[in-house]
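2024-03-11 09:14:02 INFO worker-7 job=invfold-0412 stage=load source=structure_tokens
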């Protein structure tokens, strides 16, 4: 998982959780919206389960 997060510019860590931040103006009105560094983003949090992290296949290389 460390390799996947380090290779993707929109993934980061928050403790044990993987955070996906995608820049989007829809973040202004979305409940997943967050304001980071002067820009709106949509935020998804992937918490680990007993089987590990379940992230979308588009990030698995």
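2024-03-11 09:14:09 INFO worker-7 stage=emit residues=61
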């Amino acid at each position: 998982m460390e390799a996947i997060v380090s290779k993707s510019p929109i993934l980061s860590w928050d403790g044990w959780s993987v955070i996906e931040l995608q820049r989007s103006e829809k973040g202004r009105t979305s409940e997943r919206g967050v304001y980071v560094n002067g820009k709106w983003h949509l935020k998804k949090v992937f918490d680990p389960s007993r089987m590990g992290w379940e992230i979308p296949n588009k990030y698995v290389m």
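2024-03-11 09:14:09 INFO worker-7 stage=report msg="The chain has a mean pLDDT of 93."
2024-03-11 09:14:10 INFO worker-7 job finished
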